[in-house]
Specification:
The complex is a heterodimer of chains A (231) and B (306). Chain A is mostly helical. Helices cover 87% and strands 0% of the residues of chain A. Chain A contains nine helices and no strands. In chain A, helix 1 packs antiparallel against helix 2, helix 1 packs across helix 4 and helix 1 packs across helix 7. The longest helix of chain A is centred in the first third of the chain and has 47 residues. The N and C termini of chain A lie far apart (70 Å). The C terminus of chain A is likely disordered. Chain B is built from 14 helices and ten strands. In chain B, strands 2-1-3-10-4 form a five-stranded mixed sheet, with helices on both faces. A five-stranded mixed sheet of chain B has the order 7-6-8-5-9. In chain B, helix 2 links the parallel strand 1 and strand 2. In chain B, helix 2 crosses helix 12 and helix 2 crosses helix 14. The longest helix of chain B has 19 residues. Classes of the chains: A mainly alpha (231), B alpha/beta (306). The interface between A and B is large, with 41 and 48 residues.
Chain lengths: 231, 306
C-alpha cells in the first residue's frame, strides 16, 4: 500500500469498501434526520407558542441557548450516563442541538410578519386558527425551513462525533483511520462523505427555502401576468 | 395553502418511511448488541460474530463500536448497553474487571476468569478464539541492530536513554503495570508516555519514540518490520482472547451461543496478525475483512454441532 499516494489509496479504499461506506453514510444521515425531525415536531409548535405568548419567549430561548453552548462531546458524555451507549443517545443529542435554530426561526418568522396582514385577516373575520394556518405559517415557512436547514447541517457534524459512543455512522470510519497505519486515506474516506452530506443537505434545503419564500414566489407569478397584459 | 399541505404531506410520509426502517429497534431485550473496542482486532472479531449470528439465526444484530477500553466494555455489559463483547482478554479482565491478582499460567488464568465471570456477573467467558494478544515491547529494526536487542533484559543498560510509548491503560494497571515492570526487570525508561494504543506503532516508525509497548497480534508489526523483544522474565501475564456474553442472552437464544461457539479455537495468533494486517495496511474495512474470512472458511459450517 505504501507505494500509492494518498489519493490512490483513497480511491482504492472506496473500490474495496464502497458498500460499507454507503451503509455508514445512510446510517449517519438517518440519525441526523431523526434528531432534527423530532426537534421540528417539538420546536415548531413551541416557536409558535412563544410568538403568541411573548412572556415565555425569553425563558425558552434562553434554555435553548444554554443547551447550544454545551460542547458536543460533553453533551454526549452527559447523555451517555443516563441513556447508555448507542444510536438513541446521539439522536437525543441531535434533537437538543436542533431545538434552538428551529424554535428561534419559527419565533422570528412569525414575529416578523407584517402586522397589517394579520389585521386584515382578522378584519375579514378569520379565527385565530385560520390566521395561523392561512397567514402566519405560510408566510414564515421559508424562515422555518432555514432553521431546519441550519439544524440539519449541525446535526451531521454532531452525529460524526457520536461514533465515540458507539452509534456508528461515518465517524466510525474516521476513528478507524486514526487507529490505522495508513490512516490518512481512511480518515478522508470518512470525512469527505460527511462534508459532502452537509453541503448537499444545505444546498437542497436552500432551494426548498427559496421556493417557499413568499416574496420570490410572488415575483414568479406576477411576471407572466404583466407580460400577458402587454399582449 | 397548497404549499403548506404539500409540506405536511412530505413530512408525514418522511416520518412513515423513516419509522419503517427498523435499525433503531427500541426493544432492548430482543436485539443482540455487540460491543467492540477501538482496536482493529476487536472490530474484526465483532463483525465476525455479527456475521456468524446473522448467518445462523434471524436475529437483529446491532454494533456498538469504538469503546475506549475493556473497562468501558465491561461497564457497558453490566449496564445492559451491550450483551456480547467481541474480544476480551484473560489478563486484562483478571486485573481489570475482576480485580484479582495476575496469574502467569494461561490455563489457570482462563479457568479462573471463566469461573469468576459466571459467579459475579452472570456472564459467560468463552474459551479462547485461539490467539493471544499479549503485550510486548518492540523496537525498530535499526534500534535492535544498534544495541543488539533480543529480549527485554537487553535493555537494562540503555533504558535510561530511551523514550517509551505505552498503552495508556497499562501504565497504572495494578499487578502488571509499569510500576511492577520496573520492579521485575530492575530498570526504568527515561520518559514514559501513555498513548492511545493505535498510535504507538506509528510513533515508533516515525522515530518519535525509541521503544513502545504494543500488542503481539497487531498487523503493523509486520508492516513496519518491527522487532518484538522477548519477555524473558515472563512478566506479562497471558492475554488469551475470547468472546464474552451475558448468560441471559445465551439462555434465551441458544442459537446465538452455537454461532459464537463455532469460532472458538479457529483463529491462531498468526491468522489474527494477518487479518489485522489486511485491515490496517491494506485499507480494507474490518467488516469486510471479517466477511471475506468467513466466506473463505464457509462460515465453519462443516463443523459438527454438538
Amino acid at each position: 500500500m505504501s507505494d500509492m499516494n494518498t489519493f490512490q489509496q483513497f480511491l482504492y479504499y472506496f473500490s474495496e469498501n464502497g458498500t460499507y461506506v454507503f451503509q455508514q453514510f445512510l446510517a449517519h444521515f438517518l440519525i441526523s434526520v431523526y434528531g432534527v425531525l423530532l426537534a421540528a415536531i417539538v420546536g415548531i409548535p413551541l416557536g409558535i407558542l412563544i410568538a403568541k405568548y411573548s412572556k415565555l419567549a425569553g425563558f425558552i430561548i434562553t434554555i435553548a441557548n444554554i443547551i447550544q453552548t454545551i460542547p458536543a462531546l460533553a453533551l454526549l458524555a452527559i447523555l451517555m450516563l443516563s441513556m447508555g451507549l448507542g444510536k438513541q443517545t446521539v439522536i437525543v443529542a441531535v434533537f437538543l442541538y436542533s431545538l434552538l435554530p428551529i424554535i428561534k426561526n419559527t419565533y422570528t418568522g412569525i414575529k416578523n410578519i407584517n402586522k397589517n396582514l394579520i389585521d386584515s385577516g382578522k378584519g375579514m373575520g378569520m379565527t385565530r386558527t385560520q390566521v395561523l394556518y392561512m397567514i402566519e405559517l405560510p408566510l414564515s415557512l421559508s424562515v422555518i425551513t432555514a432553521g431546519i436547514r441550519i439544524a440539519l447541517v449541525v446535526a451531521i457534524g454532531v452525529t460524526a462525533i457520536g461514533a465515540f459512543i458507539g452509534a456508528g455512522g461515518l465517524g466510525d470510519i474516521i476513528i478507524r483511520g486514526t487507529n490505522a497505519t495508513n490512516g490518512t486515506a481512511i480518515i478522508l474516506a470518512g470525512a469527505i462523505p460527511t462534508a459532502l452530506m452537509a453541503v448537499f443537505t444545505d444546498v437542497i434545503l436552500g432551494i426548498i427555502e427559496r421556493r417557499l419564500d413568499p416574496v420570490k414566489r410572488h415575483k414568479k407569478i406576477t411576471t407572466p401576468t404583466i407580460q400577458s397584459l402587454k399582449d | 395553502m397548497k404549499k403548506m399541505k404539500m409540506l405536511v404531506i412530505v413530512l408525514a410520509s418522511l416520518l412513515l418511511v423513516l419509522s419503517a426502517c427498523s435499525w433503531n429497534s427500541s426493544d432492548d431485550e430482543e436485539t443482540v448488541k455487540i460491543a467492540t473496542m477501538t482496536t482493529t482486532e476487536s472490530n474484526i472479531m465483532g463483525n465476525m460474530i455479527k456475521l456468524m449470528i446473522e448467518h445462523y439465526t434471524d436475529e437483529n444484530v446491532e454494533m456498538i463500536n469504538n469503546l475506549g477500553s475493556s473497562v468501558v466494555l465491561h461497564q457497558a455489559m453490566v449496564n445492559g448497553d451491550a450483551n456480547i463483547s467481541a474480544v476480551r482478554y484473560t489478563g486484562t479482565d483478571l486485573t481489570g474487571a475482576l480485580k484479582e491478582k495476575p496469574l502467569k499460567d494461561p490455563e489457570q488464568a482462563m479457568a479462573l476468569v471463566q469461573k469468576l465471570f459466571q459467579e459475579r456477573f452472570d456472564q459467560t467467558f468463552f474459551d479462547s478464539y485461539g490467539f493471544a494478544n499479549t503485550y510486548a515491547f518492540m523496537v525498530t529494526k535499526e534500534t535492535a541492530k544498534k544495541y543488539n536487542l533480543k529480549k527485554v533484559s537487553d535493555l537494562k543498560n540503555i533504558a535510561k536513554n530511551l523514550q517509551a510509548g505505552v498503552d495508556s491503560s497499562w501504565v497504572n494497571r495494578a499487578g502488571d503495570g509499569y510500576k511492577d515492570f520496573v520492579k521485575a526487570y530492575g530498570f526504568d525508561f527515561k520518559d514514559v508516555y501513555p498513548m492511545q494504543i493505535g498510535l504507538v506503532y506509528d510513533a515508533l516508525a516515525a522515530n518519535k519514540m525509541d521503544i513502545v509497548l504494543g500488542y503481539t497480534t497487531d498487523g503493523r508489526i509486520a508492516s513496519y518490520d518491527l522487532v518484538v523483544l522477548e519477555d524473558d522474565l515472563h512478566f506479562f501475564p497471558p492475554y488469551d482472547a475470547s468472546p464474552l456474553a451475558v448468560n441471559q442472552l445465551l439462555e434465551e437464544k441458544p442459537q446465538v451461543k452455537k454461532a459464537i461457539e463455532k469460532l472458538i479455537g479457529k483463529i491462531s495468533t498468526e491468522q489474527m496478525q494477518k487479518l489485522n494486517y489486511e485491515a490496517d495496511n491494506d485499507l480494507i474495512e474490518p467488516a469486510i475483512v471479517a466477511k471475506r474470512f468467513l466466506e473463505k472458511n464457509n462460515y465453519f459450517e462443516d463443523q459438527k454441532e454438538e
